[in-house]
Amino acid sequence: MSGERKKRKKPSNVRRGRSARRKGKDGELEAAKALGDMLGIKMRRGQQFSGKGPNSDTDIVGWVGVHVEVKRVEALSLYPSMEQAINDSVEGEVPIVMHRRNGKPWVVCCYLDDLEELSQAVTSELNYGLYINHPTADAGGAS
Questions:
Q1: Other CB atoms within 10 A of residue 32 CB
Q2: The dihedral of CA 37, 74, 95, 26: what is its sign?
Q3: Distances (CA, A) of 131 to 41, 138, 143
Q4: How many other β-carbons are positioned within 10 Å of the β-carbon of residue 24?
Q5: Topology of 12-134 in CATH?
Q6: CB 31 within 8 Å of CB 70
Q7: pLDDT tens for residues 91-125?
Q8: pTM of this structure
């Protein structure tokens, strides 16, 4: 080499990794907003990267009794994703997977055995939202 240095290319997997992390983060923020708007509750992204606290493995925080695993990928491996949701959930939480491909609407998946409990969690949140947004819900609901 006659005094010239070759430019070292960054491995393409480094760029993809950063892009995938960003897409995952954006997907979690988008899913939290979509669920929060639908249920009428404030939801936010979990703290996966801090590794501390009770919500360290939860993608979305704010829905009591439900563990949400968000997958913002083109090709979802459903059963491994459900297994991750189960492994990351705590006792008493219904594990669900929210998935969205580019240009498609969100899809929510759960096991059939958990559907009744998930339905109760949805109803509970919707009823709570109706209660706190009711005109007579000031100071404990007294009119």
A1: 23
A2: negative
A3: 12, 10, 13
A4: 17
A5: Trna Endonuclease; Chain: A, domain 1 (3.40.1350)
A6: yes
A7: 999 999 999 999 999 999 999 999 999 999 888 87
A8: 0.70
